[in-house]
């Protein structure tokens, strides 16, 4: 795969870590303005970022030298005076390899450009692989994707189930049999690129925050919750624009909250965890055990269990946006309706009146785009 050191643009000129802090911070402000609000003139960039015109001009010159931004021609408007030249992100300056390991059936991945546009897709079937076998599948998928672009790669982003620390160590991912697995260092050694690893539910929430406008998934406010329902059940929380990870990196681990003390025994050893009624494999097993006529009731029970767990979280944080991400045949319809109704019954109207609970339109891409966002944050300084 094309490594950045072979690329025409060298890595050393673009990473924020190698710049003085103030300059790196200002550069982030300019990049963020271009990401959030699209192409604009240097004068508009100065207004949006709060920086002076000369500072913005110098930073834009740097970004253009690095290939990350480019001039897009003159703005076509009727104002008097010299027309302003627009500056925008050069989407294809770098590509990012991004993978999502949350599905119980397959690891999925994509090559995306700097604006989150999907350039290529690939996937690899899991076939029950766990432990080292699962790590090998991730390496194979990353290699496959890396070979599909001729652009220099900015890095690799990984959205994985489980608890992940800031060193990219997967402390626990029960379903994949990973315990204290140094996934970031393993992959970085394998591909020779910067690798950034995060929890899949957190990635989905960050994906909406960073690329919401691109994907049509934009959240209504600065606080949102994404509930991912797949191999397991997890929550990604963004509050006041910031990802909430928790001191033990376990914020949002709601899958093992007890919802039925007499329920089935869970992989964690206890009974009646939320995952036992809501995770995709368990839910599909339950649906197979019932006839078609009971399908709605099984999905309703799963949605109700989710609502019971979510109601106090939504109330405590006064969230107004909850997005369910998972297989459409499971989460749409009866499950969503029951979750929504249960939350409404169990929260004050002051909380529930402003609440939107919806399905993520483009399911798996949220975590993929969020993992790409991990790379953009670390390598370009976007927040
Ligand atoms: Zn459990």
Number of helices: 13
> SSE order in H/E notation?
HEHHEEEEEHEEEEHEHEEEHHHEHHHEH
Overall pLDDT = 89
CATH topology of the largest domain: Nucleotidyltransferase, domain 5
Task: Note the main sheet.
Answer: 5 strands, mixed
Radius of gyration: 22 Å
The first-level CATH class of the largest domain is given as Alpha Beta
Indicate the proportion of strand residues.
15-25%
Which molecules are bound besides the chains?
zinc ion
Strand order of the largest sheet: 6-5-4-7-11
Number of strands: 16
CATH level 4 superfamily of the largest domain: ATPase, nucleotide binding domain
Helix content: 25-40%
What does this structure look like?
With 383 residues, the chain is of the alpha/beta class. It folds into three domains: 16-89, Orthogonal Bundle (Arc Repressor Mutant, subunit A), CATH 1.10.10; 95-205 and 366-380, Nucleotidyltransferase, domain 5 (2-Layer Sandwich), CATH 3.30.420.40; 218-359, ATPase, nucleotide binding domain (Nucleotidyltransferase, domain 5, 2-Layer Sandwich). It has helices at 21-37, 42-49, 53-65, 131-146, 183-191, 200-215, 274-278, 280-289, 295-317, 328-331, 334-345, 349-352, 365-380; strands spanning 40-41, 69-74, 85-89, 95-100, 106-113, 118-125, 153-160, 163-164, 169-173, 178-182, 195-199, 224-229, 233-239, 242-243, 321-325, 356-359. A hairpin with a 4-residue loop joins strand 9 (169-173) and strand 10 (178-182). It is 40% helix and 22% strand. The strands form four sheets. A five-stranded mixed β-sheet has the order 6-5-4-7-11, with helices on both faces. A five-stranded mixed β-sheet has the order 14-13-12-15-16. Mean pLDDT is 89; it is low at 4-13. The longest helix has 23 residues, at 295-317. It binds zinc ion. Residues 256, 266, 268, 270, 273, 275 line the site of zinc ion.
